[in-house]
TrEMBL record:
<dbReference type="GO" id="GO:0005739">
    <property type="term" value="C:mitochondrion"/>
</dbReference>
<dbReference type="InterPro" id="IPR045864">
    <property type="entry name" value="aa-tRNA-synth_II/BPL/LPL"/>
</dbReference>
<feature type="domain" description="Aminoacyl-transfer RNA synthetases class-II family profile">
    <location>
        <begin position="57"/>
        <end position="329"/>
    </location>
</feature>
<keyword id="KW-0067">ATP-binding</keyword>
<protein>
    <recommendedName>
        <fullName>proline--tRNA ligase</fullName>
        <ecNumber>6.1.1.15</ecNumber>
    </recommendedName>
</protein>
<keyword id="KW-0030">Aminoacyl-tRNA synthetase</keyword>
<dbReference type="InterPro" id="IPR036621">
    <property type="entry name" value="Anticodon-bd_dom_sf"/>
</dbReference>
<dbReference type="InterPro" id="IPR006195">
    <property type="entry name" value="aa-tRNA-synth_II"/>
</dbReference>
<dbReference type="Pfam" id="PF00587">
    <property type="entry name" value="tRNA-synt_2b"/>
</dbReference>
<keyword id="KW-0648">Protein biosynthesis</keyword>
<keyword id="KW-0436">Ligase</keyword>
<dbReference type="Pfam" id="PF03129">
    <property type="entry name" value="HGTP_anticodon"/>
</dbReference>
<dbReference type="InterPro" id="IPR050062">
    <property type="entry name" value="Pro-tRNA_synthetase"/>
</dbReference>
<dbReference type="InterPro" id="IPR004154">
    <property type="entry name" value="Anticodon-bd"/>
</dbReference>
<dbReference type="GO" id="GO:0004827">
    <property type="term" value="F:proline-tRNA ligase activity"/>
</dbReference>
<dbReference type="GO" id="GO:0006433">
    <property type="term" value="P:prolyl-tRNA aminoacylation"/>
</dbReference>
<dbReference type="GO" id="GO:0005524">
    <property type="term" value="F:ATP binding"/>
</dbReference>
Length: 431
């Protein structure tokens, strides 16, 4: 029975995947995601706070970017890209060169001082201030965002992707001509964040928070419950709302205390930055009073969120990853019979062959047919593949597909047509 050599390249072959044996596994960690992502070669390591994502991890991150990008576009966001390097004089304008001194990676080049940007309030406000006099009023509210790598000199990097020195972040900035509009957009972005976390199957709590060095008049964190989280969340079982421990605003006395991970943060900044950079309301088509624009900023750390989904969705003491279905590395894995086994020559070539000819980049085949079906199935489960199609004894005998719904712990024996229908119905709920 020959089938592996005829696989079309649309379906990835497991034997060709770059999944090196882990060599830097953490010795002791409270983080499930750190251990599981490295054991399954999704992340190679996060040495000294700098993550190395392998192809499976990059696939997850790419899907996460697409999901978030779609939500930002739907509320009127326009994507751009700003330099990762910030000049000292720009950061001095907001006074954060000194305020964030220890958090900035600073360096010199030809006697000029720079930093690697952990965020871009200064850069985007400087850009808007340089063109605001030519911006027509119809451009407001202006929402621009980017998804880029950021850098923070984090001395206490830990828990794999949850706290690092280098991280991928979506940061959206909004500019408004009045406070009322700014608050409307603030609410719209918060709603978009809740949709994002809902699509990621995460139960999150939106809570009032401290503005810290960011500044501003209003801000909220979005938190997900996790034992490894560094925020303390008080949850009211009566109103099902959460509050940070030091900002309790619930009238009910009965509350449960939980650790939580920050998933996102929204700030209404007022004129904290626009005033400093002289980003004024002064359009090219209408003479207006020259007053600073009102600004908001909204962040989600994607690498952190990727790890947080594993922390939150994977049950305690579980050795198999559980992903949100929208961002799984692959949706389906196919496990053919072991070479030389009775199943290999049991007459199921037609059904298996039809599956292998499907033009679907969300499927892969574990073609390492020198290994047992059980070993390869366990590999797929560890990676968090939700559906595995196995060609074992009963399936090959009855010319069916053994379809294993990993996340719901159930197995069905289906025809080729019913297998495709099952998979379509399964993912239509999530995608």
């Amino acid at each position: 029975m020959v089938f592996i050599t005829h696989i079309r390249h649309a379906i990835q072959q497991r034997s060709r995947m770059f999944l090196p044996t882990p060599v830097h596994l953490p010795r002791e960690t409270r983080s499930k995601s750190q251990s599981l992502l490295q054991q399954t070669a999704i992340v190679h390591s996060v040495e000294h706070g700098f993550p190395q994502l392998l192809p499976l991890g990059f696939r997850v991150l790419t899907k996460l970017k697409a999901l978030i990008r779609n939500e930002m576009n739907n509320i009127g966001g326009q994507e751009l890209s700003l330099p990762a390097i910030g000049r000292k004089n720009i950061w001095e304008t907001s006074d954060r060169w000194n305020l964030m001194h220890d958090e900035l990676f600073k360096f010199k080049d030809h006697d000029e001082e720079y930093c690697l940007s952990p965020t871009h309030e200064e850069a985007i406000t400087k850009l808007v201030s340089s063109v605001c006099k030519t911006i027509p009023r119809s451009n407001y509210p202006l929402l621009v965002y980017q998804i880029t790598w950021k850098y923070r000199n984090e001395p206490n990097y830990r828990h794999g992707l949850l706290r690092t020195k280098e991280f991928l972040m979506k940061d959206l900035y909004s500019f408004h001509t009045d406070e009322k509009c700014a608050r409307q957009i603030y609410d719209q972005v918060c709603d978009a964040y809740e949709r994002i976390f809902q699509k990621l199957e995460l139960n999150c709590f939106k809570v009032p928070a401290d503005s810290g060095l960011m500044g501003g008049s209003l801000n909220h964190e979005f938190l997900g419950i996790s034992a490894v989280g560094e925020d303390t969340l008080l949850i009211c079982p009566i109103c099902n709302r959460g509050y940070l421990k030091n900002k309790t605003q619930c009238e009910h006395t009965e509350k449960t205390e939980q650790h939580a991970i920050e998933l996102g943060h929204c700030f209404l900044l007022g004129d904290r930055y626009t005033k400093a950079f002289n980003a004024i309301e002064g359009s090219s088509d209408i003479a207006t009073e020259k007053k600073p624009l009102i600004m908001g900023c909204y962040g989600i750390g994607l690498t952190r969120l990727m790890a947080a989904t594993v922390e939150i969705l994977t049950p305690k003491d579980f050795n198999d990853i559980r992903w949100p279905r929208r961002i799984v590395p692959y949706q389906v894995a196919i496990v053919p019979p072991k070479k030389g086994s009775p199943e290999e020559t049991n007459g199921n070539e037609k059904t298996l062959g039809r599956l292998l000819k499907l033009d679907n980049t969300e499927w892969f085949v574990d073609d390492r047919n020198e290994l047992t079906i059980g070993y390869r199935l366990k590999d797929c489960q560890k990676m968090g593949i939700p559906i595995v199609i196995v060609f074992g004894k009963r399936a090959t005998k009855e010319n069916l597909c053994e379809v294993i719904d990993v996340y719901n712990n159930r197995t069905e024996y289906l025809s080729y047509e019913d297998t495709l229908k099952f998979i379509h119905n399964y993912y239509s709920v999530f995608c």
